[in-house]
Structure formats: C-alpha cells, structure tokens
Specification:
single chain; alpha+beta; 2 domains; three-stranded mixed β-sheet; 20% strand
C-alpha cells in the first residue's frame, strides 16, 4: 500500500497509473522497487512526482551494480509473480463471464459479510502475504469454478478474479 497525496493505492493501481501516463517511461524494474518501497515503512508521498523520483533513484543506483549480478539482484529484491495483479491487467466486473457477474457483484457488495476461506498469497504481488494484509478467497459458481480473492490492507479492500486455479496457480486480475 502506498499513499500518494493522502490517497491509498495498491501496488497494482500504482502500476496502472505509471503505465497510463504518457510522460512516464515504464520500466520492468519498477515492479521490484514498488514492492521494496511498500515494505520500507516509508510509503507516503506528497505527490506522484515524489514517487517517480524515488523509483528513478533506484534505477540510477543500478549503475553501481551492473558488473555484479548478485549485487544487482540484492538491490532489486523480490519481484511480483507473472500471475499477480501488479503484472496482469485489471478487469471490469462487466467484462467477467456472464455467469460470474452476479456472484462476484454479490460478494463485492458493500456491507456484505461473506466468509471466505484463508488464502496465503498476496494477490497484489503473488508472494506470501505480509503482516497487516488479510486475504480470503471465495468460490464463484461452485468449487470447480473460478475464484474471487478479497484483500484488505490499512482499511482498503480490493478484489481479484481468477478464471482458473488449477494446481493452486491463480490469476490475480484486480476487479474494477
């Protein structure tokens, strides 16, 4: 979770903001550095430019490590998995399969008290969830169907749709 101009954003929301800005060049390494920043404890930015400056500082720091891949890997830290919300494009409720829209809408309705089952991965990164992140999953149209994952951090709740989950490999598309 990052706070920019006093608004809470998930990492996948920040990725979409950066990618959609025509004046900002997207760099794959931002995935690593956004995770690193989110775990640093220093997650508040006055504005979007402050965040870009921090990301740019990390990119500039890479030049000191280019001849030492192990050092560069340590600098970057962990990256998001290919099936995480940070990597996958978000999906609008209306773009879900027709037979899932009603179930997903009901689960996501404000004030509902649906009880999901425990989920160990953070859908934002695809990595094991960290302290302060609560994640649960819901079957959509039966146990063999699709899944909806609910993630809550710092009072902000987001949902992620997975069209498949064979061998416990979810696709975490943030639902918009």
């Amino acid at each position: 979770m990052l706070i920019i101009s006093d608004v809470k954003y998930t990492l996948s929301e920040v990725v979409q903001i950066i990618k959609s800005c025509q004046h900002t060049l997207w760099r794959k390494q931002y995935l690593n550095y956004l995770i690193k920043i989110s775990q640093s404890g220093n997650t508040r930015f006055g504005d979007y430019g402050d965040l870009l400056m921090r990301l740019g500082g990390y990119i500039m720091g890479e030049t000191k490590h280019l001849n030492n891949p192990g050092s560069l890997e340590r600098l970057r830290g962990k990256s998001a998995t290919p099936n995480s919300a940070m990597v996958m494009n978000p999906i609008a409720v209306g773009k879900l399969p027709n037979n899932d829209v009603s179930a997903v809408t009901n689960i996501m309705a404000p004030g509902t008290k649906w009880k999901g089952t425990h989920h160990a991965s953070d859908p934002e990164t695809g990595l094991p969830k960290k302290h302060g992140v609560m994640v649960s999953e819901f079957d959509v149209n039966g146990r063999d169907g699709r899944r909806l994952t609910k993630r809550t951090q710092s009072g902000k709740t987001t949902y992620y749709y997975s069209a498949k989950h064979s061998f416990n490999s979810y696709l975490y598309q943030r639902v918009t």
